[in-house]
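Hi everyone,

Forwarding the result from last night's run.
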Amino acid sequence: MTKLGDWVNIDHRTSGPLFDQLRTQIIDGVRGGRLPPGARLPTVRELAGQLGLAVNTVARAYRELEAAGVLETRGRFGTFVARVDPADSAMATAANTYVAAAKALGIGKAEALRYVEAAFG
């Protein structure tokens, strides 16, 4: 089981929701390779104890990550990192839609990429 308390840092003084800090750091852990696909996460109670958070705070973060496809719960076996990053399929779909729209407007690759770069700021 992966011990998130070793690298997840929750700032209790921030004005933002604590569950969102946890949710974001778990996503960063998945994308950064700290949480590989299939890794088992601590139970809600275990993680709440490790991080000094309310059980409901951790439960909400887990629920939102599960709804987004980042985590999956396997009943009494626990919560695991999903085997596939949902961003992969979502971004591939969005990219294909964008390219189709650009082509329909007669916009080439270089110009279309400028729009993407501008959107990122």
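The radius of gyration is 18 Å.

Cheers,
N.
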